[in-house]
Amino acid sequence: MVKKLFRRETLPAPAEASLDAERGRLLVEESREIVVVLDSDGRVVTASRRARELFAGLTEGEQPPEAVLLNSLVVPYAVAGRTEKLVYMRDPGDLAAYEELRAGFTASVSHELRTPLARLLALLESATLPDADRDELIEQAQAEVRQIGELIDDVLFLSELESGRELVALGSTAALPILEEVVASLTEPAARAGLTLRAEGDPEAELPLRPRMIRVIAGNLAENAIRYAGPGSTFTLSLRPGKLTASDDGVGVPEDDLPRLFERFYRADRARASRGTGLGLAIVKHIANSAGGTVEAESQRGSGLTVRISFTSP
Fold first, then answer.
1. Are 183 and 198 in contact (CB under 8 A)?
2. How many CB atoms lie within 10 A of CB 264?
């Protein structure tokens, strides 16, 4: 039996080095990243096409513009005894949008924390009065502390989602047992609100989410109904392969509020007195979108709210 061996064509050392250098230059040049290579003196060795399009003044052998090094990831390395740096940059437009979003989010969190903190301070001050019902005031103060804790937990969870630290999709999960678990865990608060909770659907149906993420989505949708659907309503989680529908037959949401339903901290007029954090539905949308799904809501005043989450088949 004769074996044929395929060998890489061997080039003379100078030609091989020249080929490697050209290959490296093209890899940087055609990269989709915004990347610049700097030498040990901080001068430009080469830059990707996207970097040159976004930053004027990227000239080989010269110092790069100061903006190149702002908010960049710098990776030093050594080659042929020389120290160089790979500089990965963000699109300036993306950075500006991020800074605007971050500033708005920080302002919203500050505002949302200020309200329960002000109520907590008022309760503690009332507890110092001679005829105060201290037990009642302490109970109310504890509720405010829990509200602050829930808000902080939701903010941290959303931050982890956006930073990629919380994996959303990791295989597929049979979801009905998790939905039933969520419904069972919320039976008591639902009963206090006069709401009936149900979970139904195909026992074999799967969603492309980790179990924890399914639990978070179902819990947030159910808690939203507990707060806002109204006494005498029924809330149902319905499952089909790749689809989850949450619907109630309660008071519904005004049409003008529907486009903003999944915004962070947004509350319709009737919900402003609620102790919700205003982040539950925003988290639902973020998880679904991160797993390649879509979220849509429909409602009419007095006819309940329906939220549909759909995932495209791979």
1. yes
2. 21
Long-range contacts of 63-70 (CB under 8 A, 24+ apart): 64/36, 64/38, 67/92, 68/36
Could you tell me the pTM of the whole model? 0.53
From 236, 169, 256, select the one nearest 206 (Cα to Cα): 169
Cβ atoms 211, 178 nearer than 8 A = yes
Give residue-wise pLDDT tens across range 262-276: 876 665 544 444 555
Long-range CB contacts (within 8 A, 24+) of 159-168: 161/283, 161/286, 161/287, 161/290, 162/286, 167/210, 168/209, 168/210, 168/213, 168/287, 168/290, 168/291
Phi, psi dihedrals of residue 203, rounded to the nearest 5°: -60, -25
User: By the 8 A CB rule, do 247 and 235 touch?
Assistant: yes
Per-residue pLDDT of 22-64, as tens digits, reads 666 667 676 667 888 888 888 888 888 888 877 777 888 888 8
Of 292, 299, 291, 234, the closest CA to residue 270 belongs to: 299
Residue 2 CB burial class (10 angstroms; 0-12, 13-18, ≥19): exposed
Q: Give CA–CA dist 64/58, Å, rounded.
A: 6
